[in-house]
Design a protein that fits this description.
Number of helices: 13
CATH superfamily of the largest domain: FAD/NAD(P)-binding domain
Order of helices and strands: EHEEHHEEEHEEEEEEHHEEEHHHEEHHHH
Strand content: 15-25%
Strand order of the largest sheet: 5-4-13-14-15-12-16
Largest sheet: 7 strands, mixed
Number of strands: 17
CATH topology of the largest domain: FAD/NAD(P)-binding domain
Length: 388
């Protein structure tokens, strides 16, 4: 690049931070703006499986792959599928040394990326209020919590409800018809050993007739649990239940999953703490926009999809990496962004289509048959152990 552009990344998630790291490795200055007051302002969510050709590829380009594997959990690649009676239908157990999709907690990944950046790269407590096009390809960014600034390129890495996206697209996320209700267990191995045995070292899903119980092991013996079902995202309000009343939510979920095996109901009955409602949203497929000088999107801002492809964070990081590499490779800013979008948008559409199919298979009237077919196709099954 012949001149030093003023580049802003809006959003300090995995995609935005990966982009910043790779830009800095190429000697390109960048500033990240994040609405959180500080790095640990809020929980970062559960665990992620980093795929070899996407998330791991981005980490290699960021020269962080060794640090990643020091934190990752290869054993977390284990996956179990059960039916509502607790019968084990499928189990994938990773081979020794298998590193195709090792797990890492979102918080640990974010800290790894943040620690790799030059001091002062991230400006915390900066909520993007609006962007003003200046007519020459630059945009003035107006922030809550700081002064307005003008940039040659604004990269929207600000997630599902992006403040950058409306300048490029009229599309907004739609409810996908499935809601997750999250709860969990702390110190599961010692305080809840039966649940720990049921879940195993990685993830477990039990499914039946448009409903599922999904559990995933995090680091430090934390297990996150999601009750998933088709229906209204306002199900609690419609039943007169306050989500802040954990026992009312627990009772409603146990009623919804009545008839399931008691070992599975323990995921709801015995969990620690409260419940969080997490309706699933997605952008239209494909989601595209007319190229606009000085703006682009990556990650969920560009291609929000449900988690049933397992690709969200992986694609966001690959997006960030490839955008940074394109900016380093091309002499002109606009040429670099066009090249990035030309490669990213078709890839994102394919992944979003797969995510939509995955949701239809997993939370389905004939569940868990669709998930069983998918797992048999993409995993090598080991000999099935006795049911947990």
């Amino acid at each position: 690049m012949t001149t030093t552009p003023r580049i802003a990344i809006i959003g300090g998630g995995p995609g935005g931070l990966t982009c910043a790291r790779v830009l800095q490795r190429h000697g390109i200055e960048v500033t990240v703006f994040d609405r959180d007051a500080y790095a640990e302002d809020r929980p970062q969510g559960g665990t992620l499986d980093m795929h070899e050709t996407t998330g791991q590829a981005a980490l290699r380009a960021a020269d962080l792959d060794k640090e990643f594997f020091a934190l990752a959990r290869p054993e977390g690649q284990e996956m179990r599928l059960l039916d509502h009676t607790g019968t084990l239908l499928f189990r994938h157990a990773p081979d020794a040394g298998e590193r195709d999709k090792p797990e890492i907690d979102r918080g640990e990944l974010r800290r790894l990326l943040l620690d790799s950046l030059a001091p002062g790269t991230v400006r915390w407590g900066r909520y993007l209020r609006t962007l003003h096009p200046r007519g020459d390809g630059t945009h003035e960014a107006e922030f809550d919590g700081g002064p307005s600034e003008t940039f040659d390129l604004v990269i929207g890495a600000d997630g599902a409800w992006s403040r950058v996206r409306p300048l490029l697209s009229d599309d907004s996320p739609h409810y996908a018809g499935v809601t997750f209700v999250e709860t969990g267990f702390d110190e599961a191995d010692t305080r809840h050993p039966a649940v720990a045995r049921l879940v195993g070292d990685g993830g477990m899903m039990a499914a039946h007739r448009n409903q599922a119980l999904i559990a995933q092991r995090n680091s430090r013996a934390r297990i996150r649990v999601y009750a998933a079902f088709r229906g209204s995202q306002d199900w609690a309000l419609e039943r007169g239940i306050h989500l802040a009343d954990p026992e009312a939510v627990r009772a409603a979920l146990l009623e919804r999953f009545a008839g399931w095996d008691d070992r599975l109901l323990a995921l709801l009955r015995d969990s620690d703490g409260g419940f969080a409602n997490r309706p699933l949203y997605a952008l239209p497929v494909p989601h595209t926009w007319t190229h606009t000088p000085g703006l682009t999107l990556l990650g969920d801002a560009a291609h929000l999809m449900t988690p049933f492809s397992g690709m969200g964070a992986n694609l966001a990081m690959l997006d960030g990496c490839e955008l940074a590499q394109s900016l380093a490779r091309h002499a002109e800013l606009d040429e670099a962004v066009r090249a990035f979008e030309a490669a990213m948008l078709p890839r994102a559409a394919r992944a979003a289509e797969a995510a939509a199919r995955g949701l239809d298979n997993a939370i389905a009237p004939d569940a868990p048959q669709g998930s069983l077919r998918h797992m048999r196709r993409f995993h090598r099954s080991t000999d099935l152990p006795p049911a947990p």
